[in-house]
Structures are given as C-alpha cells and as structure tokens.
Amino acid sequence: MKHPLFTKLAALAAITVLLLFGLSMIEDVVRDRQRYRSLTAQSVAESLAGPQTLMGPMIHSACVESWDVETGKGDERRVVEQRREFLLTAMPEQLKLRSGAAMEERARGLHKVNTFNLKAHLTAQWGSLAGLQPQTTQKNSRMHCGAPIIMMAVGDARGIRTAQLTLGEQTLALKPGTFHPTYSRGLHAVLPETVRGQAPGLSVSMDLELVGTERIAIVPLGGNTEVQMTSSWPHPSFGGRFLPSEREVRKDGFSAQWRLSSLATTAQADIEKGSRICIGGYDDSPSDYAPGGATPRDCADSFNVAFVDPVNPYSLSDRATKYGVLFIALTFVAVGLFELMKKLRVHPVQYLLVGSALCSFFLLLVSLSEHLPFGASYAAAASACVLLLAYYASHMLGGLARGIPLGAGIALLYGLLYVLLQLEQTALAVGAIALFLVLAAVMVLTRKVNWYGLSQGTPPQRPTPPPAARPAPATPSSTTSARTEAP
Q: How many C-beta atoms surround the C-beta of residue 429 within 10 A?
C-alpha cells in the first residue's frame, strides 16, 4: 500500500462509526428503562396519590339574587323571575403553615418511586368577614345565600389521611368535597351563620396528614403567608414562582421557609377568578399543568418542593453513556500511542474488540444498577472491563509491561467518570480540565514524531541531531592512486 497510515485511519473511522451505533443502541435501552420507571411512578400515583397541591383554607358562600320582571302588554302581560348566581369569598389575612415530610419508598418490580407523608399544622386568621355580606344589584330583589363554608383544596383527595379543624375552642366536623365550582377536591366544614359580616373576624387551625408522590406545591393564599417545611430527604428541588427566603440542606434532610405578601403574589386574585391549582410551577414541563391540559397562564401562583433522587440509576447511566464516545476516543489514542512509540502493529479488528469491551461497560452498568446500589454496580462493571482490557492488551501489545499501564489508564478514566457523575455544579469544569491534561500528555509524548515519515510508510522514528563533522572517507580511486605513487 502506498499510504498505510491513511488506510489505517479509514479502518479506524469505520470501526468508530460501528461502535457509535452500538452506543446509540445502549442509550435506547437506558431510555426504555427510564420510560418504564415513569410508568411505575404513574402506576404508584394511580394507586396511592399523585403530586399534591395545597390551597386554603378559604371561606366561601354561594348566593342567588332573584327579581321579577314584567314582560308583554295588555292581556299578554306576565311576570318572569330572573336570577343571578354568584360566589362570595373571604381570603385569610394571615396564613401560617408548619409541616414535616417523611419519605416512603414504593416499588413496582425493579423500579422505585419516592412518596411522602406530609403532616401539616395550619393557622389562618381573617380580620373581617364583611366580604361575605351579599349586595343587591336590583331593586326589590330577593337574596338567598347558603351557609358559609370553610374549605381546603388539595390536588388529589385520595391522599388525605387525617384532618381536624378547630374554630376557637370548637372542633368542626369535616366532610369530603369543597362545594366550590372550580376547586372540588378537598374537604370542608360548615360555619355558623353568625360569622357572616363578623367584624372581629375569626381564627381557625387545622391539622392535616397528606400523602402524595414526588412533589408538593402550595398556593400562598394569605395576605401574609409563612410556610415552614422540614424533611429527612437530603435532595430537595425548589421550584414554582417563589424560592425559599431561607433554606438549609444537610446530609440528613432539609429545612426551608417562605415568607410572602399579597403585594408580591397574585394568588388571591387568581383564586377569585377561578384559575387552576396545578401540580407544578412555572418552571415545569407542560405535562405538569394538569388537569385538562392547563398552561402556566391558567395556573394560580404557587411554589413547590420536589423530592428528587439524584442517584437515580437510570439518569446516572444516561449521563455515563454520553461519555462513551470520549472513552472510545481516549482508549484508541492510548493504543495508538503504544503502537507508535513501541513500533507495534495493532490490527483494526483488535481496535474493534477493545471498543466493544468499552461499550459493554455501559450495558453492564445499567443492568447491574437495577439490582445493586449504583456505586457497587459501577465498581463491578468497571473492574470487569479493566481486567479484560488489561489481559487482552498484554497480548495485543506484546507483554504485561505494556498491558498493565493501558489497563491502569482505563481504570483512571473510569474513576474520573465516576467523580463526574457524582458532581453537579463542577462536572463541566472538572471534565474540561481532565480532557486538557490528556491532550497535553499526548502532545508531549508525540512532540518528536516524524508524521511525514509515517504517511510514507517508514517506521516511526524520533529525529536525531546531525552528526559531528568528520573528514570524508577516502574513495577507492584515491586510495589506489596513493598506493601507486608510493615509493
């Protein structure tokens, strides 16, 4: 062959394309497993309770105003009753919520889902209930209003375990439903008619136990809203329209506190006009704005806490497979350096086998992580691949002295990848620095390689300094003449 280097590079390019196809198939497997996990979460939500949203407490009263209207003339004159239906609402001026969330793990087969058990204590104060006094709009009209109802709306009423409502010293009987035309899921209690128009207002307290899946959202309905939440889960994700004013995330859990004023949120106006209370916040995907395909503009202001699992084996495996191309490239570079510096010949089929072993690591990782902790799965898959590659490289490169360094380098790559998977904020910086160091090492090792000589088919050699000047050797003709002229 006139250009063996170009032929070798073309073969390696074809092998790389084949390995990339294999990596894409492994990524499809990881996505399928992630989809199965999502179906598991949906199954748990259908059997237990889905993501929850709390809205309330709030007082409302349904009213009907009716009046008589005369129509027609003469003998055809008749009286027709017309009516207007409307809802009177009263939002609390002060709303305080103290809650603690205990995590419970539920599983369907191999897949696990985080559920929570929320125990909350709420206190709400109304300064005046004058807003519950109906105002007539027609002369001589008749007004009829139902009893004032205090309600608490939730995203999924199946998650309500226990609830108790206290008005002063009196415990009110809670019943399912809210009798609200928009927020029908939840619970309610009937208030005495005497509270309507009560100038001093009233104060209530509620103890609520609520279970749900993966996330809890709260609508800041008070004129001043204070929410304090604690949990033993160390990986919260705060979202929605408002972040906590104070938060502390520890290895054994977190605590967070929100303090909001009606000057900063439109929650009261949103609820008065019937905006939806949604599962998520404005930063979530469109599928989170259930029910009925609601969009962010249809949802009332809220904030939420998601109990995410950062060591989800499928998300970590998906992140790991994204480094597969880099693994293959760096390993091929390492083998190529041995081939170049030690003047070896490695067949393209051997490159293919080495790349296939690297690809098998990612498949081993995702399969083992379904049965073992992710750290143990990673260690087992990486150890198996390192031992296999070190053994094969010792024969491919002509000895243990060459195979073991290659295996050590691959082990270092696996160690670096594990560190990158554990990092969240600094993964990009660490990966970029490591890649720069590898590139610098390759450049240093190949700084004296005669690349033109490689392209012409000559064995790789390091350039040597020019020899020192010596007297030119005598030619045969000059030696002969010298011998002839000798006496």
A: 10
